[in-house]
Amino acid sequence: MVQMSLSAVIPSKSSLEKIIEAYAAQNQVEKAIDIMRSMQSNSLLDDKPVITLIQVCGGRGDFEQAKELVDRIQNIQPQLRLSVSIYNSLLQVCFQVGRYEEALQIFGQLRNKLMTPTRTTYEIMIKGLAESD
Fold it and tell me: HEC states along 59-88?
């Protein structure tokens, strides 16, 4: 990344997303977040890298890091309105690790922000709660 910057080559959005995926796979979340900051400053940040990092945390069973990541994203870009897709990813992590109460709280946050849950949101909630018994 530094070499690309020094040579005045501006990496594409897809290249930056691949770098984020690579950092996430190596558990280098801080470096991934740095890339996301760079993307945000160039108006390139959208849901995809955020969701990728949430899924990596979920794959490791680390709900706390996934939740912290979402909180930090909001600090990076306070005006960013988290999408339903980001909430859906966080809900999936909750259910993967058995954090049912947190899933209900996150679903409530989504509703409190006047966001409309999607069909996928309801499917995640129904499946996750059904499997909680």
Answer: HCCCHHHHHHHHHHHHHHCCCCCCCHHHHH
